[in-house]
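Letters spell out the chain; backbone shape is given numerically. Both lines appear below:
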Amino acid sequence: MKDFQMLNYIKNTIENMPSDWLNLTTHRLDIYNEKLAKTQFIAQFETLYKSEDSSTESLSQLPTAYDYIRLGHPLSSVLEWTIAKLNGLNAEHVISFSSESMPILAILRTNLLEQRATRILHTEDLPKRFSTDLLKSVYNYNFEIEHIQNLDAVEAFDGSTILISKHQTVAANLQNEKIDFYVNLYEGLGSVLLISGKAKTSFISDIQHVRRRETIAMTPANCLVALKAYTTETAFSPQQLDTTTQKAKVKSIINAINATSGEALVASSGLSMQYAIMMGLIDNAQKEHPGKAIKFVVPPNCYGGTNDQARRVAACLDNVEIVDLPVDGDNDMVNSVEKVLTQLAGADTIPYIIAEIPTNPRVEVPDLEQLNSALSKVRQTPNGTTAIAPVFILDQTFCPNVQFLRDDGILSNVKTIAYVSGSKFPSGGKCTAGYAVANAKAEYLIQPIAKHLELCDNEATALQYQILATQMPSMLKRIEDAYKNTRAFVNYIHEVLPDAKINFVSEKLAAEGFTPSVFSLDLPTKGNTEEERETYKRALNLRLINLMITEIPTESKYCVSYGQLKGCYWTIPATSTQGTTKERDKDYIARVAVSPDLDLEKHKAVFLDFVESL
């Protein structure tokens, strides 16, 4: 029986929701408790529901559901709450995905690590991108598949049972106690996973973590379509967009910006793109170098999502390991690359290096001539054969304008794949879609990467393509203008607080094209012991951020974003972007991201107030 009171409340909610629910990609950290992700939002939303309050003002005051939109957001949380209510489940047992494949892969991953058997039942065709062969041979997942017509005839199974079914409406049937997971496919929108009440609750956090690292939540626009279908009890009607034209335009722009001519790939997020890169390279390595050990070389203090995802991939595969690559602070990327590649040649392994240039959060750029020498150097294995050359996987989110991949570029003789988070400069913060492209030497690797992007159903959505097609033509100009504002702000801080240590590119590097608009700020501290000095500095970081967001609420935001169209974004990398990094490698400094459009004089004035209060 339908709960008409609840559906009417949802109808009012989506009519009155704040515009940010549909349009923001990153949210405020000052009203976010990571340990209570989603649950705090849902608890307070439930309170509003019980008091029949769906006013825009009340909805605006709800706490942030997730710090990044790709992990989840207000509309995905409301959709999951609604589906849970209609099916007698806790909201935690309902998880929406932009991908049709990833909820299945999330369960398979958990069961692989738990050594639990999996049975996949389907009433219609499997998702069109599903590949039993790839999931078993490359991902190491173990499962059996069965096509069924009569759910009542399902027999008991010693393990987990998944039922995959396609839906044109929001109906669901959770009555069969022999089924643990219901994967409802909503073509054009994504999928919704319902976890039966009897399934082990440990699955919930594991599945959420797959959504956090290897894919994204159902997008706000698609959640809104689903919610409208719920309240009107009609079939889903996704917005019809001209994807073919927009795809061609976006890929053409990507090639023009990077000075490449090969296929560009566009994924639902930067981490979705990185996951396809990693799995595509593993797939290719199995064919090119069967039986050889694969080593992903990753900076231990790089962006937490990159770090965590790489280690999660390695956890599933016996022949894949992570090797640390210290890159900034007291470490030099070139020396580290030289040392690690020599070590891996000595073990006759396959080296894949993932690195950010400029580094995050220290904004350092290695000597590129020396880096090229270290990467392209021919090394020998112990038995005298030529060691396998590395593939360099470059995250250039901070400087997507630098043409690392051009035919006559600095890395032209190194197999290089570059990728960029689309929630930053490419879209100006309007969507999460990320992209990847390779130089001529690595172009042949795009095909296996594309295969895994398709398997995971992690390609950018039609709306994401449309947003990129609109935003990317102005990207280079926005990068230029944002850099000018950043340089001016950095120079001012040097002037009024000379004791602060600022990590930013030099004028010389900027002249070479490295024009990021983010810098890190190591504030001067005091105390008799290292612990006292560190404690004082951390408190000072927060004091500065709170002053900025309080005095300039329309522009300054406590948030992890970068490359936005307007304003200034402040964060502490150790507590946000470096979330899963080992504690000893975290940076408890302030990271500041400046946009092309902000009131720079106001920001200078508030910063001066901060300095005078010290």
